[in-house]
Write a structure and sequence with these properties.
3 helices, mainly beta, five-stranded antiparallel beta sheet
Length: 246
């Protein structure tokens, strides 16, 4: 009898056995019911290989918790972004290249103060008609005229100003020039270049560099194409472009 009493388990052994039974039964119950919560999982033990592919979804993630360091570099593509959702604030400006049209515009807009490019459309003036305005910038006006007389048809480019001490110039080899180094408001339209065709002669075509400026800083520089048709209608045609400054 005494030997049996001596073999009874100690209280500590009984308590440990009960704890082991409870823990094992808890895990078994969780497995049997298909529900294991975070209490049955040891911290930092669930790994990527324990999760079935394509099973973690948006509802499993806490709002505002996925960050840039959680996404592999260069894996987010255009199809991952909703249409029309990216704004200028989302783009680093100094990484953008220049659009082709902006690169072309560099020839017209510079740090020197060019404000716009004036296109002179194809403009035909009948022989003997009054001068027609081709471009105006501040006090300066460029016009074209197609005069007529017995000998020939005369094409003229003229500049007029409303500001004293202005200046105008034109130049191209083979055509007559009349520079105006001092052009005042009272002078009226002044010819800076002309072209002549005798009646019945072939058409004359050419171009002329032109420039004009005023003391106020208004100026233009450009090129005008010229066509004199003495063999046909006798009309004069103008076209070109001017960079307007100031």
């Amino acid at each position: 009898m005494k030997s049996i009493l001596r073999r009874r388990p100690s209280p500590a052994l009984v308590i440990s056995m009960i704890a082991l039974f409870v823990s094992l039964s808890g895990v078994s119950y969780g497995v049997a019911t298909g529900f294991i919560d975070s209490r049955e999982i040891k911290n930092n033990e669930i790994r990527s290989l324990d999760i079935r592919n394509n099973e973690v979804r948006t509802r499993d993630l806490r709002n505002n918790e996925v960050r840039g360091i959680d996404i592999r570099n260069s894996t987010v593509q255009g199809r991952d972004v909703a249409l029309n959702t990216l704004t200028g604030e989302d783009v680093k400006e100094d990484t953008l290249g220049k659009v082709p049209s902006a690169a072309t515009a560099d020839s017209a807009v510079t740090a020197g103060g060019v404000s716009s490019l004036k296109i002179i459309p194809v403009t035909t003036v009948a022989e003997g008609a009054a001068a027609i305005t081709l471009a105006t910038h501040g006090p300066l006006t460029l016009s074209g005229q197609c005069q007529s007389n017995v000998a020939d048809t005369r094409l003229q480019l003229l500049v007029q100003t409303t500001e004293n001490n202005s200046a105008a110039w034109a130049g191209t080899a083979g055509m007559a020039d009349t520079p105006q180094p001092v052009l005042d408001a009272d002078d009226g339209p002044q010819a800076i270049t002309s072209a002549n065709d005798a009646p019945g002669a072939p058409r004359t075509v050419g171009s002329r560099d032109v420039a004009a400026s005023a003391p106020s800083g208004k100026a233009f520089t450009g090129q005008v194409g010229l066509l004199v048709d003495a063999s046909g209608s006798g009309a004069c045609t103008f076209h070109g472009s001017l960079a307007l400054q100031g």
